[in-house]
Specification:
Blueprint (H helix, E strand, L loop, with lengths): L7 E5 L8 H14 L5 E5 L5 H6 L19 H4 L1 E2 L5 E4 L8 H8 L4 H7 L7 E5 L6 H9 L2 E6 L5 H16 L5 E8 L4 H9 L5 E3 L2 H4 L1 H4 L11 H18 L2
Length: 249
């Protein structure tokens, strides 16, 4: 019998909101399950719950999301299947607004990493939709992730913001997982966007498109209703780059 692939955790993280973070998380989770046939979990850790809204047609508010960290529930107890074969969701709920205080009170700096290790037999890939900013939750995510996908809006300060992120992580923990920067909401007609892309031609991009905005109305990943669109193809290419990066160890 062939050995199961080692579980890998991909964190979608940004220092600030409004960069399409949850859109990335949902579309990359779809790609993991549908293109790579990976047993995939999307764990929504953002109290705003955008990824949960996009993937869960019916989600009960059970205040269970924080209870997982208190070890009152195991993560697999509240994972639910989505409409996408091979993709499960660990939904966000309002209890995550109190997660920062809980983690501080617990004093467990690697609680999330230990919770993730318990999912290794069930999933091949875990996508973490992180809250924006360097919160305690985000720091726990970065300790447990194998790769960080960092969406950034194209600007002359894109490299500085990425370097600042890496520098902060190193000062706080002495180490950080590999970071894959991705330009988000790209409009090549805008001069600043074009200049940023020229400065970093090796960074993947996702173009601005009204189709991406339709995800909120359809409550579905982009490839399920616009598979041939440019952004859907770009997300697929980003996922392929992630798989290559993970394969290198």
């Amino acid at each position: 019998m062939a050995a199961q692939p080692e579980m890998k955790t991909i964190a979608v993280f940004s220092l600030k909101g409004g960069v399409g973070k949850s859109t990335f998380a949902v579309n990359l989770a779809w790609a993991s399950a549908s293109l790579s046939a990976r047993r995939t979990l999307l764990w929504d850790l953002d109290p705003q719950g955008a990824a949960t809204w996009l993937l869960a047609a019916q989600t009960e508010t059970r205040d269970a999301a924080r209870a997982v960290f208190a070890r009152q529930l195991e993560p697999e107890d509240i994972c639910q299947p989505t409409a996408i074969p091979g993709l499960d969701l660990l939904a966000a709920d309002m209890s995550l607004h109190g997660l920062e205080r809980l983690l501080f009170d617990l004093g467990k700096k690697r609680r999330l990493a230990k919770l993730l290790s318990g999912l290794a037999q069930r999933y091949d890939r875990v996508i973490l939709d992180c809250p924006p900013g360097l919160t305690e939750t985000a720091e726990q995510v970065l300790r447990g992730a194998d790769l960080v996908v960092a969406p950034v809006i194209p600007s002359p300060l894109a490299r500085k913001s990425l370097d600042d992120l890496a520098g902060i992580l190193i000062r706080r923990g002495g180490w950080h997982p590999p970071i894959l920067p991705v330009f988000s909401m790209v409009d090549r007609r805008r001069k600043l966007h074009a200049e940023a892309l020229e400065a970093h031609p090796d960074w993947p991009i996702v173009s601005y498109s009204s189709l991406v905005e339709q995800m909120g109305f359809r409550r579905a990943p982009l490839a399920t209703f616009a598979a041939q669109s440019q952004p859907a193809e770009q997300f697929a290419m980003i996922w392929q780059a992630i798989e290559r990066r993970l394969a290198k160890g």
